């Protein structure tokens, strides 16, 4: 029986103003198992635009569970974090001017 494991996102939302003229932001975080507290590698992190539900960008977590998505424009997004056998986490966030 598979035990239910919830992905915990440590420091999920760390936004940076990359360029004031272009209003670019980034999303950084770390994906860890809440039970074992070990990093989750190869988790899929997808960013979807909430206005039209288009996929804006995606990446995979590294061996330490870290990930970063750069060059996000001003807007409202949803971050979806998933890994086989684990619960998918969806969190909304905004990138402001």
Fold and architecture overview:
This protein is mainly beta and 97 residues long. 0% of the residues lie in helices and 48% in strands. The chain is built from no helices and 7 strands. The chain has strands spanning 7-10, 25-33, 44-49, 55-60, 66-72, 75-82, 89-95. A 4-stranded antiparallel beta sheet has the order 4-3-6-7, with no helix packed on it. It has a 3-stranded antiparallel beta sheet with strand order 1-2-5, with no helix packed on it. Strand 3 (44-49) and strand 4 (55-60) form a beta hairpin. The radius of gyration is 14 Å and the shape is elongated. The termini are far apart. The model is unreliable at 1-21 (pLDDT under 50).
Could you estimate the helical fraction of the residues in percent?
under 10%
Outline: elongated
For the largest sheet, list the strands in their spatial order: 4-3-6-7
N to C succession of SSEs = EEEEEEE
Cα-to-Cα separation, first versus last residue: 47 Å
Tally of individual helices? 0
What is the residue-averaged pLDDT?
Answer: 81
What value does the Rg take, in angstroms?
14 Å
Largest sheet: 4 strands, antiparallel
Low-confidence stretches: 1-21
What structural class do you assign from the helix and strand content?
Answer: mainly beta
Total strands: the figure is 7
The fraction of residues in strands falls at over 45%
